[in-house]
Amino acid sequence: MNTHEDRYRRRDAHVPADFRFIGSLDVIVGVTSALINNPVDVVKTRMQYPQTNKLEGVVDCVTKTIEKEGFTNFYKRTVPRLLGSGLDAAFTLMDYDSLRNILTGRK
């Protein structure tokens, strides 16, 4: 499998991976995930409220939310989620890399 770590190492297993490089990629993954998932979570939450029985589906929920509150409403409270998701992904994936290196005998 060709991963970013392999590209960084140029396929030389003896070159140690820089945790700053891997960590920055992991933060990018977490932030991208939060930015994509936040609007989906807003729609999901709106559909679950009992007061929203007037909504006829996902498309109706999206259009009514944009009409009443604007597009930026899909990204309310994004900053705390970005911080949490970015750091969570960074630590999780860096721990995974460290554990994989220990178990496979890489340094």
TrEMBL record:
Chain positions of Solcar repeats: 17-102
An annotated GO cellular component: mitochondrial membrane
Membrane topology designation: Multi-pass membrane protein
Cited InterPro entries: MCP_dom_sf, MCP_transmembrane, TXTP-like
Main localization (coarse): mitochondrion
Subcellular location as annotated: Mitochondrion membrane
Keywords tagged on the record: Membrane, Mitochondrion, Repeat, Transmembrane, Transmembrane helix, Transport
Entry-linked Pfam families: Mito_carr
Family statement drawn from the similarity comment of this UniProt entry: Belongs to the mitochondrial carrier (TC 2.A.29) family.
Name of the featured protein: Citrate transport protein
Organism listed in the record: Ranatra chinensis
